[in-house]
Structure to design on (188 residues):
C-alpha cells in the first residue's frame, strides 16, 4: 500500500500538525495515491478519506492492530513492552483485555496483583484520562497507571508533566512516561 510506505518513510507518528498537513497535500497530488482516487473523488474528498482512513489507522497499525498493520514495515514494541517499562519485569499484559482507541489493557503482576494500564502520546491525554475515569467508576479500588509514551528519552516539558500528574491524581492513578519508539519490523 503506497500511502503506508510513505508514512513509514516520513515517520508519520512523529510529524507535527503542519508537517502532516503538508503530507496530506502531497498525498492528494501524488499520482499513485490521489491520482488513483481522482476519478472517484474531489481533491477535498481524497484528503478527508486519507485523514479519516489510513492516517487515523496508522498509529494502530504500528501497534500491530487493524487492516493496514500488515503493510507497515515499522512497529512499536507492543503492549508487553509498555507494561514491562511502566510496571516492571514481573508484570505482563492480559492478552484478552488489550483494547485500542486508546491502547489499554489489564496487567497481571506478582502475587496476583492486577493493574489497569493505559498508554499513548501526550496528545491523547484527554482520552487516557477519560478511559481511566470509566475504569474508576466501575471499580473504585482498581489500581490504574496512565503512561505517556514518547519517541525519545527526553522527559516531557515540566508543565506538561505537571498536567499529566494532576489529571492522573483526580482519578487516583499512577502515571509514568516511557520511551516507546517505532523500529523496523524483522524481515520474514
Amino acid at each position: 500500500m503506497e500511502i503506508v510506505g510513505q508514512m513509514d518513510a516520513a515517520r508519520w507518528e512523529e510529524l507535527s500538525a503542519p508537517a502532516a498537513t503538508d503530507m496530506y497535500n502531497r498525498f492528494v497530488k501524488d499520482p499513485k495515491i490521489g491520482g488513483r482516487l481522482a476519478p472517484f473523488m474531489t481533491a477535498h474528498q481524497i484528503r478527508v478519506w486519507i485523514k479519516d482512513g489510513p492516517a487515523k489507522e496508522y498509529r494502530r497499525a504500528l501497534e500491530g492492530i487493524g487492516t493496514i498493520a500488515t503493510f507497515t514495515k515499522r512497529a512499536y514494541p507492543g503492549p508487553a513492552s509498555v507494561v514491562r517499562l511502566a510496571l516492571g519485569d514481573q508484570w505482563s499484559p492480559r492478552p484478552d483485555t488489550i483494547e485500542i482507541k486508546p491502547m489499554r489493557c489489564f496487567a497481571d503482576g506478582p502475587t496476583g496483583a492486577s493493574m489497569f494500564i493505559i498508554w499513548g502520546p501526550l496528545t491523547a491525554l484527554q482520552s487516557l484520562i477519560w478511559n481511566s475515569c470509566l475504569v474508576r467508576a466501575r471499580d473504585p479500588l482498581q489500581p490504574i497507571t496512565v503512561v505517556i509514551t514518547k519517541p525519545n528519552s527526553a522527559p516531557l516539558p515540566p508543565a506538561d508533566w505537571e498536567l499529566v500528574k494532576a489529571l492522573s491524581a483526580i482519578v487516583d492513578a499512577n502515571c509514568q512516561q516511557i520511551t516507546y519508539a517505532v523500529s523496523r519490523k524483522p524481515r520474514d
